[in-house]
Amino acid sequence: MQERVPVLANQKMSLLHTQKDGRDELHFSLPSILPRLPQENSSVETESPMESTAEEHGSDEALSNDRKPTEVTCKPTDVTLSWENVNVYAPETRNGFEHGFRRHILKDGCRSPSREASGRESARSFISIFCVFQVSGTVRPGELLAIMGSSGAGKTTLLDVLTFRTSSRLTTTGVVRLNGVSVGGDTLAALSAYVTQDDVFFSTLTVREHLQFQARPPPFRVATPRDVGLIFAHSHQAMVRMGRELGTEEKMHRVEEVIAELGLVKCADSLIGTPGNGISGGERRRLAFASEIVTNPAVLFCDEPTSGLDSHAASTVMGVLRALAGGGKTVVATVHQPSSQVFALFHRLLLLADGRVAFLGDTDSATQFFHDKGFVCPENYNPADFYISVLSVVPGEEDDGRARVRHLCDSFEKVQRVLGQREPPFVSPLEKKMIANALAGASPYRVGVTTQFRALLWRSTLAVVREPLIVKVRLLETLVSSRVSPTRNSRLARPGHPRRHLQLVALIQGLMFMGQRLDAEGVLNISGALFLLVANMTFQNAFAVVSVFCAEYPIFEREQQAGLYRVPVYFVSRSLAELPLFVLLPIVFTLPTYFLIGLQRSASKFFVALAVNILVSNAACSFGYMISCVSSNMHMGLAVGPAVIVPFMLLGGYYLNDGSVPQGLIWLKYLSWFLYGNEALAINQWEDVDFVDCHGFNATCPGDGPAVLRMFNFDKVIYLR
Ligand SMILES: Nc1ncnc2c1ncn2[C@@H]1O[C@H](COP(=O)(O)OP(=O)(O)OP(=O)(O)O)[C@@H](O)[C@H]1O
Ligand SMILES: [Mg+2]
């Protein structure tokens, strides 16, 4: 027997009453929040909070009676998003920042939180400048909420708070709830998607490939580099975003649907490229939007989804948002200057002015509110333009403007409960606990580690293979001197990417040190050459990584925040994809230099030296990743990197004898890959040399190889350390 008992009518939750082995069983269930295909057209009930509360009380009773749930399956589909008393502030010195309106807020309305924290006021104390002040609101499933306001009003900041992405420089207070349950960033990431204002993509992928992110790799087979794309051709890049419960074909179908919905058919197989050297700005915007809606998320946040689009494309994008809301999603979007046509698509409106709420409610009520306050929207005038102009502070009329904005915000505070602010949905304590338990288990990752790994390996491999120029440049950089201009679509063509001045590094070094003999001078020259090998491996690879990875970092960061994959999976897959390059380059470098210098002519010695160089080059890559992660951009990375490398280089055993390292810095030498590399190469070279020609040199000349090692304080016993 099965019987559905409504619990929250406005949230489509239900209790499934079943009988098993003569026992009553209740299953608390909500339809899956995980991606649904768009043919769903569920309408959303919009009962008033009072009506639903009465019903909820009734069902709560039913729940707490003798029907105790024996199994709980809670998958909230219809998500009500609410936020309360959200404040975002940035600390500024009292004398350092003048911001009339927000300072007034502090004087009139509240104490500076930082002062509260310090518990005292002083002339030099910090005051806090609010970016967003006391903002509360609710959006229900089936609603499209537009956040509007002039530039700097706090739209992006509010959206960042709601998605837990606020900059660490800002302090945030307040609470974000899903279906009445306070949530954190991971839970929200699992249920939502965020289209940011910036479009950052892998330039080497096509639009279709970007939207595909892994499903079903075919059996592995050996392939040419050109074939690498085909290896994964059936795996389709999409879907680290989409859950396991959808099959590959459904996922691919969804990708094609989104491509068609957003008018990306024409450029589906074009490389995304870089701004100005790839798909158009509007297409990039639509692609950013498509990347997020491909998953049919329960909650969708969009920051300026229409910026840079023409009016037709903007209407298309907003139409898609409205349709998503119509399908039961909860949609929040900041919009700068919507046309009347786009404005008519919004269900609800949140007007921000100088970080405060000037209005929150149905779009129809907005006209009435402004009318009541003496601001009448002229007929045939775009209401959006009207509200923005009323809430703007025009240069030259700052005092009037701020007074007007403050008057409206204060007035709205008074009528807020009547017009805009609705109570979050009532959820009984037991239901709350059940939802909290379900949400607590919600992982931001939609697919397993293996799928993440395959998708990332595919993408990274494609990036390496599709950019042979980078490989060529680095090979040339290793061998030949010339000046290479990046091609149009290359990642090297990114704005701000330095052009490579290629040098005869390997050949110059080989020729400079050519034909060394085993005498006192030769010992010093060979030792210098060995150290230079390690230094070249380091500088080439570490800074190549910094220049490429820093440009990719914004994509990595965005995908991390969206919970697409785990950091170790990203690192391992990326390193694996680049491994052939980091093996090939040391080979190309070591081959000429080793034999030109005249190092030990034995195959085993050569291969040991090669292995050491490969390890050094990979250690340098990891160092490059570390520098990229701590630098805010490529320029900073390229500036910080050398400064950090120098101490490791000095402790490499060449400039400063290993036995002379100051006591306090001894720990640092164990982190120096220069030392490990240099020492290993030196031991490889000198350990079995039994004669050094010291004829005509003074007594300090080492007579054999072990004496050379002792001179540098290198010890063969710790060769493998
Ligand atoms: N990290 C930060 N540090 C200090 N102030 C900040 C920071 N981020 C934002 N602000 C300030 O908060 C206010 C709101 O910025 P926000 O980016 O939210 O505006 P916006 O409404 O999205 O504007 P736009 O329409 O131009 O995108 C601005 O005055 C901005 O200078
Ligand atoms: Mg913004």
TrEMBL record:
Entry GO MF terms: ABC-type transporter activity; ATP binding; ATP hydrolysis activity
PROSITE patterns associated with the record: ABC_TRANSPORTER_1, ABC_TRANSPORTER_2
Membrane-related topology note: Multi-pass membrane protein
Entry-linked InterPro entries: AAA+_ATPase, ABC2_TM, ABC_transporter-like_ATP-bd, ABC_transporter-like_CS, ABCG_dom, ABCG_transporters, P-loop_NTPase
Residues in ABC transporter domain copies: 117-379
Entry's Gene Ontology cellular component terms: cytoplasmic vesicle membrane; plasma membrane
Residue ranges, compositional bias (Basic and acidic residues): 18-27, 54-70
Ranges annotated as spanning the membrane: 579-599, 606-628, 634-656
The organism's place on the tree of life at top rank: Eukaryota
SUPFAM superfamilies, sorted: P-loop containing nucleoside triphosphate hydrolases (SSF52540)
Keyword set, alphabetical order: ATP-binding, Membrane, Nucleotide-binding, Transmembrane, Transmembrane helix, Transport
Region Disordered, annotated ranges: 1-73
Biased composition range(s): Polar residues: 39-51
Keyword Magnesium: no
Localization (cell): Membrane
Family per record: Belongs to the ABC transporter superfamily. ABCG family. Eye pigment precursor importer (TC 3.A.1.204) subfamily.
Cited PANTHER family: ABC TRANSPORTER G FAMILY MEMBER 28 (PTHR48041), PROTEIN WHITE (PTHR48041:SF129)
Protein name: Protein white
